[in-house]
Amino acid sequence: MKLNRKSFLKGLALGTISLPLAMRGIMGTGHAQSSSDEGVVSSKKYNWKMVTTWPPNFPILGEACQMFADQVNKMSGGRIDIRVYGGGELVPPLEAFDTVRSGAAEIGSGASYYWAGKAPAAQFFASVPFGMNAQQVNAWIYGGGGIELWEELYRDFGLVPMLGGNTGIQMGGWFNREINSVDDLKGLKMRIPGLGGKVLEKAGGAPVLLAGGEIYTGLERGVIDATEWLGPFHDSLMGFQDIAKYYYTPGWHETGTALEFFINKDQYDRLPADLKAILQNAAGHVNIWCLSMMEAKNAIALAELKEKGTDIRSFPIELIEQLRIHTREVIQEITDQDPFAKRVYESYEAFRKKASDYADITERMFYENIQLS
Amino acid sequence: MKLNRKSFLKGLALGTISLPLAMRGIMGTGHAQSSSDEGVVSSKKYNWKMVTTWPPNFPILGEACQMFADQVNKMSGGRIDIRVYGGGELVPPLEAFDTVRSGAAEIGSGASYYWAGKAPAAQFFASVPFGMNAQQVNAWIYGGGGIELWEELYRDFGLVPMLGGNTGIQMGGWFNREINSVDDLKGLKMRIPGLGGKVLEKAGGAPVLLAGGEIYTGLERGVIDATEWLGPFHDSLMGFQDIAKYYYTPGWHETGTALEFFINKDQYDRLPADLKAILQNAAGHVNIWCLSMMEAKNAIALAELKEKGTDIRSFPIELIEQLRIHTREVIQEITDQDPFAKRVYESYEAFRKKASDYADITERMFYENIQLS
């Protein structure tokens, strides 16, 4: 420590920069490269397709894909031209992963929990019930060993993953039934996919699968009693406030869902170093832009919902505790069956514990004692 | 709402993307540009200097500057070569702003509160006591009107600002005196610069100005009773745990300090569109990378400090409330005297209120009920 302190004060180098694996290939030798190239870059042009899991022009999430494409095009002087397809425009949303694997498209956008059926470990890079929030997930993936594991997993599918956004913590959902105790979940027909649905089922609920376009009518007609979606901004656009009695919080099932870009590895590997760096930096920029827009637009939309009298409720704490127990059971089943999922979850959970300890004396105190509305 | 909902479900465009001004110039016409350029970019080379306010090779913050330079070099195929100078290597740290204004260097890195003496409004783009945290500051600047105001302010100095990192919420500092009540602040000699120091003074304390290299000795010899610095990672490197009795939290005075790049506007304006986009995307990427590394390394360093028995204390809530009152007085004095500062603070505060309301039912609940260490 003393040595470090002295070096620090003297302004000496403190060892190497700890960079995610994805960065290493694109760092460091910029000067050498520029001197050999003498500032001239290849004019080879790449025409790429991006297939996404989002509806065409989906606010923020789909816009982030177009922003990525525009920025890459601009930075590369048009050398990578990426045409963005909404889900269903070129292939159905959930075929994006296999489409990029096959090379029929060069890049995709989604959230890695969509690929849990192909690789159970994948979902831990998107969202875990009672998991980390956006700031912690970013810290784990960029700086806590996450990206290295994610790259290892996707390499087997011939893909390169990159963080490309975050929803922030979501809302608990819209309910037409009051939730005052764990018993009120019994028989509850709720549209809630993924791990959240499995957890609800263990608590006695009935998770229902409904595509985005069917939720409004399903909730209006009583086919379902409840639905989760995203946050105030996207939920308002769906019109749920007109047909649901209660808006519950918090979104225990999606505490900070990371969005991703995945690139066909063969295509990526054959790019020159400058274009690889352009893709990586565009993804990083879009990542923070997306979370920031979610935060900004959700804050404004919540104020509007409140003005219109939306009844906002909190889940009882006993219910939260019960769902936490079921979450542990669900995760245990996954990690028991899949060694790589176990490895990823161990890294995730070890980091989460440290980040939570740190948050307990920093961000938690900020929200409890420092910020006042 | 109904129309929106229907358009939404039909996948139609929902109006224009709300983008910060900084983005507008570099978005949108990528295709047109690429077709006229036919993929060929100018080979003109730019040799730039970056002057920073950080000690040479300063962990994370200085590394972020080098990462920015490396990424820009790589993305541009060496067409922008940025040499990074630590504070004092080319000019003293606090001359970075004027050095870039004059054109003697093309780009600088710092935190905008360093320039409060030149423009009182500047500090609101870095950190405000009892202000927003990193996630909220990013949302305000990228998506809540912040960047437009910041660009307007810096334009008068011939500069273009960009977000380039965030420290996250900092710690309250290292104390050799127990703080159990507001009275314990009376006469407290504490190294705490900027607005935090003014607030401490109003509470009866004695803020002391000490350069980074003098703090350790000052605290060891009792010249000061307390000091703030950053968080567990950087504080440990300074060795404060060896000479201070208590480590207090939370950092009410710096709740999420934004770091910046500022570019000489004449130099920026004469860059081709691709290089402008490269600078903007590198800054966005470095912004989220920096916060993520702070979070990751602070979490690890806190665990180490705890293992070594560091005595971590929380400020009493009455003291927090008293400092909040004095903060309002200090800000009132600034906004009374400077109309532009008033405009910026009104935007900041209006956004903060909405973001806090939203956080109350999302992130606050996450830290209180969802995350468990």
- Mean pLDDT of chain A equals 91
Overall 3D form of chain A: globular
Radius of gyration of chain A, taken over Cα atoms and rounded to an integer in Å: 22 Å
Strand elements of chain A, count? 11
Q: So how many helices of chain A?
A: 15
The main sheet of chain A comes to: 6 strands, mixed
Strand order of the largest sheet of chain A: 7-6-8-5-9-11
Return the string of H and E elements of chain A.
HHHEHEHEHHEEEHEHEHEEHHEHHH
Identify the biggest protein-protein contact and residues per side: A-B, 136 and 136 residues
Percent of residues in beta strands of chain A: 5-15%
Calculate the terminal CA-CA distance of chain A, rounded to whole Å.
41 Å
**Helical residues, percent of chain A:** 40-55%
**Multimer state:** homodimer
The residue ranges of chain A in which pLDDT falls below 50 over 5 or more consecutive positions are: 6-39
Structural class of chain A: alpha/beta
Brief synopsis:
With 373 residues, chain A is an alpha/beta fold. The first copy, chain A, has 15 helices and eleven strands. In chain A, the strands form two sheets. A six-stranded mixed sheet of chain A has the order 7-6-8-5-9-11. In chain A, strands 2-1-3-10-4 form a five-stranded mixed sheet, sandwiched between helices.
Structural features, described:
The structure is a homodimer of 373-residue chains. Chain A is α/β, with parallel strands linked by helices and 373 residues long. Chain A contains 15 helices and eleven strands. In chain A, strands 7-6-8-5-9-11 form a six-stranded mixed beta sheet. A five-stranded mixed beta sheet of chain A has the order 2-1-3-10-4, with helices on both faces. In chain A, β6, α8 and β7 form a beta-alpha-beta unit. In chain A, α4 runs antiparallel to α12 and α7 runs antiparallel to α14. The longest helix of chain A is centred in the C-terminal third of the chain and has 35 residues. Chains A and B meet through α1, α3, α4, α6 and α10 of A and α1, α3, α4, α6 and α9 of B.
